[in-house]
Write a structure and sequence with these properties.
Length: about 475
């Protein structure tokens, strides 16, 4: 990145011996950090939830600036569709023809005006300064002109009127979701009255959830200053702060894990079983959160096998299971398994999915995924579930879970497996009487707006013969 000349230094193209005494802008650290996140997401498909904490640690921003950088980065990524709809009316060429750096800077500035209501002069001037430093003086003029037009048009509500969208298109713009996700949520909910609340819950910053694996929850509550989670007996919800500061987290006795993900692991452990209970399998185990909880709650004498086809993810599983006895971690694809059919009593399939259930944690995913991604993932999910049913013995159970509510990845996959004549569906909701509103037929569905968790889907199948 090109840095602006120091104040009093020689500017580009100026004769030696003459000082440039004009004030030069001091770049805003919070805004520069937010831009760097947007740029990395656009240019390298980085994940904001992994990159931003790293940048905040490296740059040592104070609490206020770190909070503003987080709000800017996550907000602008989440609102990209609406921001682009506004910008497209003000730029005299397709947005795709702009320098990607300029487009990200325009998004950053427009978000401040439309959603944060930062005074127009501050939003425009600081973004122009960034543009001049990062891209150059020519594009800075374009950014200045466009952002002043954004500010003249008012806030988000005013721009929604100006864009004259209606129906699902207006709802998509108002809630920062692609239209295909709006349609998928409607189908999954089966209730129009909840649709907007569900979409808006995706836009709220999530709490940090901890799981008490090898430490009493009461002790973790006291150490963290958090509150017991309402659904999982192992969950603690934090109001804020860095969970990495906690001794229990550093030692592996506790970990960061969404409470919905905890319930997905507990589903396998709570399932009624016919016959022996000695061997459990987490078939798509990386990065190891559910394996870690399964290892902690299994009865004495149960051996846990955790597999993942990616070596680096299998290594993360090993780290999550450090200190646990009678566990085995394999680099293995569940569709080409090294284990014999019928080897396990319980099998968990946390299948690869679109990740649409965790949009509040990964704001860029809503624009990175497309409707075309669903069908190949659903095919993979059906294949993995079929192999899981082969891996479990007759009388054993398979829990199929995904971090997505999309019908094609959830109900349709479980229904296809349940159509086999050697499989029966076990109702999920009765296993969690403490969790209201999770029944989706015989399956289970968690929602951010109902449960304060990721939108996890849960299903339970027994192999009958």
């Amino acid at each position: 990145m090109t840095r602006p000349p120091r104040r009093g230094g020689r500017g580009p193209g100026r004769p030696a011996g003459r000082q440039d005494l004009r004030p030069r802008p001091q770049l805003d650290g919070a805004r520069l950090t937010a831009y760097d996140v947007l740029d990395a997401v656009s240019a390298r498909e980085a994940y904001a939830n992994l990159l931003l904490p790293q940048l905040l640690r490296e740059r040592k921003l104070d609490t206020r600036d770190a909070a503003f950088a987080t709000q800017l980065a996550y907000g602008a990524l989440r609102a990209r569709g609406t921001l682009d709809a506004v910008l497209a009316t003000l730029v005299d060429r397709p947005l795709g023809e702009l320098d990607p750096r300029v487009l990200d800077l325009l998004r950053l500035g427009a978000y401040q005006v439309l959603d944060l209501r930062v005074p127009a002069h501050a939003a425009v001037d600081t973004t122009v300064d960034l543009t001049r430093a990062i891209v150059g003086p020519g594009p800075a003029g374009l950014v200045n002109a466009v952002l002043r037009k954004v500010a003249t048009g008012g806030d988000r509500a005013a721009w929604l009127e100006r864009l004259d969208a209606s129906g699902d298109e207006r709802l998509a713009l108002a809630t920062d979701h692609p239209r295909w996700v709006v349609e998928a949520w409607r189908e999954a909910l089966g209730d129009e009255s909840e649709l907007e609340a569900a979409l808006l819950a995706d836009d709220a910053a999530p709490e940090v959830h901890l799981v008490a694996r090898r430490v009493p929850r009461e002790q973790l509550v006291e150490e963290s200053g958090g509150e017991p989670g309402p659904w999982s007996p192992y969950a603690v919800r934090l109001g804020g702060g860095d969970p990495g500061r906690l001794a229990a987290v550093r030692s592996g006795a506790a970990a960061v894990q969404d409470e919905g993900s905890q319930l997905a692991a507990l589903l396998l452990a709570r399932a009624p079983l016919e016959g022996p209970d000695a061997a459990w399998l987490d078939m798509c185990a990386g990065p190891g959160g559910k394996s870690g909880l399964l290892a902690a709650v299994r009865p004495a004498g149960v051996r846990l096998t955790a597999a993942d086809r990616a070596p680096h993810r299998a290594e993360l599983v090993r780290q999550a299971l450090r200190g646990e006895d009678d566990v085995e971690v394999l680099v293995a694809d569940g569709r080409e398994p090294p284990w014999a059919p019928g080897s396990f009593d319980r099998v968990l399939v946390d299948a690869p999915c679109t990740g649409l259930g965790a949009l509040r944690r990964r704001p860029e995913v809503r624009w990175r995924r497309t409707a075309d991604d669903v069908a190949p993932l659903a095919e993979l999910q059906r294949d993995l579930l079929a192999h899981a049913l082969t891996a479990v013995r007759p009388g054993g159970v398979v829990a199929y879970v995904t971090c997505s509510p999309h019908t094609a990845e959830t109900v349709a996959v479980a229904d296809a497996a349940a159509a086999r004549d050697d499989v029966e569906v076990l109702p999920v909701a009765p296993l969690f009487p403490e969790v209201p509103g999770m029944a989706r037929g015989d399956y289970g569905q968690l929602w951010p707006h109902r449960h304060g968790t990721d939108a996890m889907f849960l299903s339970l199948l027994r192999r009958t013969r």
